[in-house]
Amino acid sequence: MAMAPTTNNVPSEIVHVLASHGPVSVATYAHEGASTVGCAPFEDIIHLFVSPGSATEAALLKSSRLTVSAKAKDGSYQVRMEGRAHAGRGLAGHPLLRVLEPWCPEGVSASRLLVVPFIAEHIEFVRGKDETSKRNAGLTPAGRARPTPGRMWLAAAFSGMAGPLGYWILAWTTIWFGIQGNEFVGRPLGVVLAIVGGLGLVGGIRLFAIAQGFILWRKMRAGEDDAPWLLEGFFSPLDARLVGTAALTAAVAALGIIWLVWGSNLFWLVILGSGAWLCGPAWLIHLALGRPDPRS
Questions:
Q1: Residues 6+ apart with CB under 8 A from 183
Q2: Cα–Cα distance between 77 and 129 in angstroms, integer?
Q3: Dihedral, CA atoms, 103, 106, 108, 111, nearest 10 degrees?
Q4: Which long-range contacts (CB under 8 A, 24 or more apart) does 24-27 make?
Q5: Fewest CB within 10 A of the end CB: N or C in the chain?
Q6: Cα–Cα distance between 225 and 63 in angstroms, integer?
Q7: Which residues are 49's β-sheet partners?
Q8: Residue 195, CB half-sphere, CA atoms under 13 Å: how many?
């Protein structure tokens, strides 16, 4: 899933300003990776040219929230944009190489640049100085369309094969506990713990898989479908691993309680019924094979 924002996300006036401004200042929300980089401004995506191994690249692997700003030397205008981005990949193998190459910093070869796509979600534009200044600020179409965190993480954790497995876990758990009848001690708690255990295993493993898929995509060893939501810039690989760790921790805690209360039979039933033993190795093998998208 590559970045595909709404057309005309950035006003044409700001695009023209950035096109004549030159390098812009960038920094993540944590104030890391601050630097001045070249840019290729378009109305949908602003492409930033970042040096491999730079602090900016390292910061974007930890946070997808980015601020881009530009200010005229004479103070006649100021542009500040907040939005999302990801660490990108090399310009040399980029499908938009011919479009972006004219915007590259002079004297720097394509092999020494990363292309970082930035989607503005909030823009502040100030024209003029002092009392004559005019300020416009607000959300862009991409900012208004941004999904809620809950929807974003659920969709990411249960993307691909994890989606059908999630429905399967809900179905078999409800049916199995229903068959046990009221005689099953602690049935409501057992249903909740079994669902948390099964979904936590599958969702947590999936988040680790797509985080690794993004790393391999940057090396052109995986396709866009291997890193959904990360390639949209909604979260970073570090975010995916942290949330994946939280999901697996919740699953382990739920399974531990199941073992203590109901014994090993239900414990192994939840693990086998989750399908984690199937999807985990399948994703690992898929990423190990390395099947990138065909170049345009």
A1: none
A2: 8
A3: 30
A4: 24/48, 24/68, 24/69, 24/70, 25/68, 25/69, 25/70, 26/56, 26/66, 26/67, 26/68, 26/69, 27/59, 27/66, 27/67
A5: C
A6: 21
A7: 38, 115
A8: 14
Q: Which of 60, 115, 117 is nearest to 93 (CA)?
A: 115
DSSP at 75:
S
Query: For residue 255, what are its two tokens?
Result: 């399974």
Residues of the chain with CATH 2.30.110.10: 12-146
Measured CA to CA, the distance from residue 209 to residue 189 in angstroms comes to: 30
* Structural tokens at position 113: 């640049």
| CATH architecture, domain 12-146 | Roll (2.30)
Chain-centre distance for alpha carbon 130: 39
Residue 77 falls in which region: left (phi positive, over 0), alpha (psi -120 to 50) or beta = beta
Backbone φ, ψ for residue 205 (5° rounding): -65, -40
Divide the 296 residues of the chain into consecutive groups of 10 and give the mean pLDDT of each group. 71 93 88 87 94 93 94 91 94 88 87 94 89 87 94 96 95 93 89 97 97 94 92 95 98 97 95 94 90 62
The 3 state secondary structure assigned to 114-131 is EEEEEEEEEEEEEECCHH
Listed residue (83, 30, 89) closest to 57, CA to CA: 89
Residues of 61-99 as b/e, b for ≥16 C-beta within 10 angstroms? Answer: bbbbbbbbebeeeeeebbbbbbbbbbbbbbbeebeebee
- Full-model pTM: 0.91
CB 117 within 8 A of CB 3: yes
